[in-house]
Amino acid sequence: MGTAREVFGDALPIAERYAAFLANAGVERGLIGPREVDRLWERHLINCAVVAEAIPDGAQVVDVGSGAGLPGIVLAIVRPDLRVTLLEPLLRRTTFLNECVELLGLPNVEVRRARAEEVVEEFSMDVATARAVAPLDRLAKWALPLLRPGGELLALKGERAAAELEEARPVLKRFGVRTSELLQVGRGMVDPPTTLVRVVTDREVVRDGAVGRQQRAPRRAKASRKRSS
């Protein structure tokens, strides 16, 4: 819990309420496996919280396929300056997410029941996050159209992160990606550090055949780089 205090600071009591809700209602409703309860903090909460290192101040964030709220709810807890939309198509999961938001008192969070392709015309986000949703080539098709020109996708990935990035390059090129790289965040907090695939759209991004307006990308926090292209 020493690391949790360092990561969450004054928001630790809120994170503790979320962990308790995950360990009970989350398990009962099948959103978290019972074997995950003993490692909720290291494997899930802290692992997600350190993603905040790579997100600019005051960003609008969409968490694609939010599920139990990882990483979206965790990011909203640790970074109250963010405006987070939890995008999830399944009713039982959005019900759980709405209960979480009410229980935790998170004014910076909105729950939206929809598929990514259904809200493309409405969304122009700074950052899209995703964890354990789909391989990067499929995830990119869903998440990148939700971003404003210069926006970025931060996908939490495991051992296959580099391989997924290579496999996804044809899709990324089609979506006008300017930068794609692997980042590691949370050094000294989690072992191993959390691996992110970071994909930044170009200033002009294709949406359904239309070219988006030019806009400068937001400043982002520093994070260690493993690979760039």
TrEMBL record:
Keywords: Cytoplasm, Methyltransferase, rRNA processing, S-adenosyl-L-methionine, Transferase
Main subcellular location of this protein, as a coarse class: cytoplasm
GO annotation, cellular component aspect: cytosol
EC number: 2.1.1.-
Residues the entry annotates as binding S-adenosyl-L-methionine: G65, L70, A116, E117, R131
Record's compositionally biased regions (Basic residues): 216-229
Compartments (UniProt record): Cytoplasm
GO MF terms, alphabetically ordered: rRNA (guanine-N7-)-methyltransferase activity
Pfam families: GidB
InterPro entries noted in UniProt: rRNA_ssu_MeTfrase_G (IPR003682), SAM-dependent_MTases_sf (IPR029063)
Family: Belongs to the methyltransferase superfamily. RNA methyltransferase RsmG family.
Name of the protein described by the UniProt record: Ribosomal RNA small subunit methyltransferase G
Source organism per UniProt: Actinomadura litoris
Chain's gene name: rsmG
